[in-house]
Amino acid sequence: TYIVMDPCVKCKFMDCVEVCPVDCFYEGENFLAINPDECIDCGVCEPECPVDAIKPDTEDEGTKWLEINTKYAAIWPNISEKGTPPADREDFERETGKFEKYFS
Ligand code: SF4
Ligand code: F3S
Question: Would the ipTM clear 0.95, i.e. be above it?
Answer without folding.
Answer: yes
